Amino acid sequence: MQKNCNFQTHLKYNFLLKLFKILSITVTSLLLIVISFLHYQQFPIYEWEFILEYIKDNRQKEDFNSIATKLGYNENDKLLIIHADDVGLSKSVNESTFESFKNNSITSAAIIMNTYEMEEGLKFAVENPNFDFGVHLTVTSEWKYHKWGGILDKAKTPSLHNSVNNFYWNKRKFVKNADLNEIKMELQAQISLAKSMGLKPSHIDSHEGALFFDPNIFKIYIDLAIENDLLAFVPIEASMHFNGELDKPNNAVIIDQFHMLHGGTEVEDIENFYFNVIRNLKPGLSQIIIHLGKDEPELKKITVDHPNFDYRWRQKDHDIMNSKEFKNLLKENDIKLISWLDLKKAIL
Question: What pTM, to 2 d.p., does this model score?
């Protein structure tokens, strides 16, 4: 009897031990998957509190009814911003953006102030004040050979630059190394330069989303919007920063439905991506971020070894946004196109 009892206890012990091992392996595997995902997406998340908020999905939503009413719409309307990033990256990016504005294919765009062709972009924006432009605040330099640093003298912002005086190539290195005071000085310099050249920007946003992860950096971003009387684009994932320690100001506009091509998208799937976005758009405030350009030598050279957002993606974005099929789809789905300038006039 005693032997039988000991045998059963031994079986239970072995079972619990195996169960514990299985659970340990499962939890470890899940953590590795999450960490690998964050690493692949270049999410520079180092604080467990922020990771917990991300997992708990403590996101906030914009007061859409109020915005819709101020714009002359109602809560059942589908309001969409079609926004072109990276103006100033190259001549073909500029050319595609200018054409798309003239064709009423986009409603807003944003200029990178520390790129080689930004003056051409600024000139067009200043000469065409009816088109809506913002400042694409930039603190990373992701291309393999086409590099840039900050507006300010590098001696004033050493923490933002690598050993050859370029911005870091990814978001993780930027968040890890950057000094908060130097971040604010550089970003303000970018806004001030745009204004000094005649631009009347409607909003700011963040190149590669680098300003959205760290709560202290995000606060700088929001403070700059307030101090410069601009709107700030806030993707709904970043709205969890408005957690009591940081209150959401009117300048911060949370986009509930935010759509952009994701890494690894095949060129032949791009049209279906955008068409499905429009077909499935729900009432509320939405934004599609596109990256325009053309299949030409300069852009090919800039985007070499960078299949995401390369010249093929950008040419496809240009073709789709300027197509009759896409414009007809907008009408068929009763999409109301608005701009960041419309929002600024209504909110501020």
Answer: 0.87
